[in-house]
Amino acid sequence: MDPHRTSLNPNKHLKEQFVSNLTGSSMLEIAALLTTVPILVLLRQSISSFHVSGARDTPSEKKDNPVVAPRNFSAYFTALTLDFLSIVLPMLLFFTVLAEWTYVWTILLAFLLIFCVASKRSISSSSPSIEGGLRPFNTSISSYRVAMMLVTCLCILAVDFRIFPRKYAKTETYGTSLMDLGVGSFVLANAIVSRQARNVSSMNWKMAIKSTSPLLVLGFGRLVSTASVDYQVHVGEYGVHWNFFFTLAGVSILSSIINVSPKYSGLLGSVILLGYQSWLMNGLNVYLLSNERGMDVISRNKEGVFSIFGYWGMYLLGVQVGYSLFFGNRSAIKRSKKGITTSVWLLSIFFWSLTLFLERHFERVSRRMCNLAYVTWVLAQNLQLLAILLLSDYVPGSKMLILEKAFDQNLLVSFLLANVLTGLVNLSVDTLFASPLSALSILIVYAFTLTVFLGIINFYGIRFKFW
User: Fold this and answer.
1) C-alpha closest to that of 9 among 223, 233, 160, 230
2) Which residues pair with 55 in a beta bridge?
3) What is the pLDDT of residue 305?
4) Domain boundaries, the chain
5) Can you tell me the distance from the alpha carbon of 165 to that of 279, in angstroms, rounded to the nearest whole number?
6) Which residues partner with 25 through β-bridges?
7) Where are the transmembrane segments (predicted)?
8) Which residue, 190, 283, 315, 334, is the most exposed by fewest CB within 10 angstroms?
9) For residue 156, which of 434, 384, 425 has the smallest C-alpha distance?
């Protein structure tokens, strides 16, 4: 970069320091904070009496929930706005100005949900007009994936403001934080509903590379765009040139080239993770956490390159979870929805126990290296969130919300748009010195803009396909 050219981001180094050398929060606090997300979703479902009529359904290619495109835009937009006010706005407040009362709000929301569900069930037992019945399991999976995407989209901009607690920003070496869950949750959420988990015919390596090319384009696009506008980059996160999209592409290519039956993906994933963890504990972790960087590409991007092994293993475990619990035997699933919910709860408890054991006796959680403890923590936290959402069967008349459908039909688009909006805000606003009121106002406008855009393209039945 020309040293005489005026930088578009004059506070670049200050912003990089603002998200560096952080130690995170406790697992308990993060678990409590994230518990509010599915509770907000279930609360919205339990108190919602809003019904959008005249909808036309456009089935998705994966035969998930239909894309609902009501002809009445006014009714649709009202429902979308109510969803935003009931779910997204409270999430934003819990992540920022209300962060010091996490446990209090979690308990209060839980009691409120119990009260609302109990009241509605008592009404539904005496009134046949309220719809009930079991929701398809893929509806809960979609709700879970949308919930994790909402958390990610809100955090990637909020972290640049001082009203976002530093304990929720990504940790430097070891530790756990809200944002540390981001990339791991994205990988896991994709694995659970992947082609492998659904036992769809696998791709050969040529098809795999072709299908991954959009991710590579996005990765190089982000690399070029951040360099051209002198955008802040925390090198300790992935490396000098690496980014989130390269990690996704690497995992996709590896899982396609070395393809195994979903019945054995968990076994292969465990072997990879154990081998990688052994490598870490025999000196690789010292190298990855050091400031040492050579001139070669691998050394300059060591965090991103080597952590792929951890994410690959996590992906394979996610495939096993998706296949075993949801897609391996559809007839059995339809007969025992409660059994599936119980299994998810038990798996979450198992991975929580394993995470605590690994933390105490082996190596602490490290997102930077994607070590074994990080993988089990991501599994535990995500399965906990999914397990809570599976309880939607106890909410009479619960349906997938307009907000959820809007995000679910274009998940990757929502993430891309969130990144673009985040970049625009950072280049036009001095986020470090914004007042709490200004910061909160910007975040609300940002979140609502994202919601409205996705809502509009969902209303018209538009679904972007990248591969």
Assistant:
1) 230
2) 70
3) 93
4) 22-459
5) 34
6) 176
7) 20-43, 73-97, 103-123, 144-164, 176-194, 240-260, 267-288, 308-327, 339-359, 371-391, 411-433, 439-462
8) 283
9) 425
